[in-house]
Structure formats: structure tokens, C-alpha cells
Amino acid sequence: MDRKILHKLSYGMYVISSAKEGKLDGQIANTVFQITSKPAKIAISINKENLTYEYIKYSNVFSVSILSTEAPFKFIGLFGFRSGRDINKFENVKYKIGVTGAPIVLDYSLGYIEAKVVDSVDVGTHVLFIGEVVDADSIQEGTPMTYDYYHNVVKGKTPPKAATYVGGS
């Protein structure tokens, strides 16, 4: 079976963030999708080993910052290949605290969505969090970064905890 064919599914590149007891964390994710319109609900997939998972599970809120094609690899690496257990990812990043209390990344973001968790589904290594949208706005005009763009133009790699990880890719 050629698991790399899964990379051909359409994905975006996002920073998913949350907060816990005054601490902030965020991570790169490629699985965010709208599931209903009234009320507006979205779903995200987060690895259970990630600190962001712990923060979302604790606070029941998350934000999605939609990355533009202008986001450099170093910025993506900060949120995608580093752990919030080891560094403060927000130390040198422009952000604001949203209405949910979750941080919203402003650097390289086209816009954001904030959601309150209304359900979750354990899918093995990951949890699918379903959130009702409580706020959303545009930050700037631009082109959203896709997972394909990240791999083929930015020449980025897939971290081992990503849902789309295929050994060494």
C-alpha cells in the first residue's frame, strides 16, 4: 500500500492553539475542516502526546490561525518541530488572546477561527475535537498555505506525531 497517496488529499497549514492556567501552547496541524453551518462547527485532529492536546482537553477551547504561503520554514518549525514543554513558542511571535482565552497567532496568518469544544472522538493516536465557532476574523489578504505547498515549495517534512506521517517523510 502506498501511504504517501494520503498526501494528495487537500490539507491546509494551521497553527492550533490553546491555553491552560495562564500558559499558552500551539502546534502546526493540517487537519481542520468545517462540519456544519448552523451552528458553525469545525473539527481538528490533535495527537494525544502533544502539549496542545492537554491544553485543549483542559480548557475546552482552541483557536485556528490560517497560515499564508509567506510563512517561512523557521516559523513552521517553531510550531511544528518544537515542544511547548521545552520552549515558550509565543515568546517572539505576534499574537493576541481571543474571546475564548486561546492565543491567536498574528504572524503569517490570514485569519483565525475560535471554537469551544462541544464533542470529541478518540481515533487512536489522535483525538478529533469538534468545536462550535464563537469568533472568526480576517487578518490580512493572501494565499493560504496548503500541505502540498509546504512539501513541494517550502520543502518541509512531516513530523513523526502528525496524522499524515509516513516513516521518514
TrEMBL record:
<protein>
    <submittedName>
        <fullName>Flavin reductase domain protein FMN-binding protein</fullName>
    </submittedName>
</protein>
<dbReference type="Pfam" id="PF01613">
    <property type="entry name" value="Flavin_Reduct"/>
</dbReference>
<dbReference type="InterPro" id="IPR012349">
    <property type="entry name" value="Split_barrel_FMN-bd"/>
</dbReference>
<dbReference type="InterPro" id="IPR002563">
    <property type="entry name" value="Flavin_Rdtase-like_dom"/>
</dbReference>
<dbReference type="GO" id="GO:0010181">
    <property type="term" value="F:FMN binding"/>
</dbReference>
<dbReference type="InterPro" id="IPR050268">
    <property type="entry name" value="NADH-dep_flavin_reductase"/>
</dbReference>
<feature type="domain" description="Flavin reductase like">
    <location>
        <begin position="6"/>
        <end position="152"/>
    </location>
</feature>
<keyword id="KW-0560">Oxidoreductase</keyword>
<dbReference type="GO" id="GO:0042602">
    <property type="term" value="F:riboflavin reductase (NADPH) activity"/>
</dbReference>
